[in-house]
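Morning. Coffee machine broken again, so started the prediction first thing and wrote up yesterday's gels while waiting. Chain of 339 residues, entered below exactly as on the submission form.
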Amino acid sequence: MSGALGKAGRSAGNLRKIQILGGLACTFVFLALAFYHVPVAAVRATLAGAQPVWIGGAILVYALDLSLRTWRWQIILRASDRVPYRTLLRALLVGYGLNAIMPARLGELFRAEFCNRDFGLPRPSALTSIVIERLFDGLAVVLCLGAGLFLAAATTPLSRPLLGVLVTAALLFGGALLVLLALSGKVLSRFFARFPRLAAKVALVESGLRILRTRRAIGLAVVTAIIYVPDTLASWFLVKAVGVGLGAADSLVLVGTASLSTLIPSGPAFLGTLQFGYALALGFAGAPRELGIAAATLAQLAVLLPLALAGAGVLAHASGRILLPMPAKGKCGGTPAAP
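Came back before lunch.
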């Protein structure tokens, strides 16, 4: 048994190394693509001349964005457990903050663990709610990109790659929606019926996914649409800080492209992929690519870095030391915390 556990541990360690190396490789590749024929001095000069007022505006509206995302997460969880808004906000800061510095969005695992330790929310319920949240985000950014390209009605050398991104993302998230709808029934329960311990956890997953089959899914779609108003505004402020004023169509293209770029494995703060996404979107809008690279760098320095520090601070405050176990403060609906 100990040999098997040791082998599993080594496999997990090797997988993490592959993820880190893959992320670093993507960072260098996409940085090279973003900076292709772009003078570094031009990016540096743009950053030096960025207007603080617009950067401050981006930070403020992103804070509003986070508060709305917490509200949406509370709506998702309401089907199974009623978790206090404050607990969810702290967990959201942990997850989003660590996503900015860890590969493969591993911050989401910390978010689920935080809810489990801080409020006793079962891990399967927390993880299922996060999957639903990310599904609605993915569908929203696909719609943003599609609507932006449609409204722009522009034919540029960058139109074809952006259409390719749109089609790929639509297939990815459309397929994910169909799979989750299928799993929200009793398929998993029947499959795992002979394994009682797993069956209990599977039942929590199915219970969480059931919201996709109810009218509340429409409410979630509406709340997600509201969320992307400050999200789009934050991106608009960041590019305005470097001297670019985007129209509605180009702003939607920027939000869709930048958000989808963060799905690609990368180094901390989506370094490289975010620069490439911003450069691609601003190039489509007719602006110099160095302005997009500068705006992405501002997003990393002014938004993602403080978010990462806030998430680490919440962990440190809750546990005394980062990554130490946190005592459970209660149980959700009488359900014991999953082991």
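Residues 2-319 form one domain. Going to sketch it on the whiteboard this afternoon.
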